[in-house]
Amino acid sequence: MSANGQNRHARTARLARKLAVAGTGAAVLALPLIGATSASAATPAATTAAATATTAATTYPDNLDGWIRESLDIMAQHGIPGSYEGIHRNIMRESSGNPLAINNWDINAINGTPSKGLLQVIDPTFQAYHVPGTSWDPYDPVANITAACNYAADRYGSMDNVFGAY
What we know:
51% of the residues lie in helices and 2% in strands. With 166 residues, the chain is mainly α. Helix 4 packs across helix 8 and helix 7 (123-129) crosses helix 8.
């Protein structure tokens, strides 16, 4: 038993469950090494399987959770900061999670450029902060989130720093 009162097998099993539940692909890489006493324990077949699993396309559910997670992955590829919590908080304030939300009453709408989508982005801002690899449709949830987070990163350092209309 270790100092914290758990044997190695119990800790290893819990780690394996956490990695499997996380669903990040890290579990595939870590599992062949769990319990290994040397690097030779990872067989070439296991290494090949792990490499194939990590290069496979990730699929996301077509809902708010999936849109945020896909946006976070794209943001990470482009060095755009932000967290799930910060994005979710702002989406709930701006659109209540409705990707087709449009604001037809504020000054932007009066000037002919209504705010659109999950994070209520106007077209000029969406176009200026569009992130490659996403749709050019401001109502597309992933494109809207990613462009808004890119704008917030440029203006405020991160969407996490936004606590009101931006």
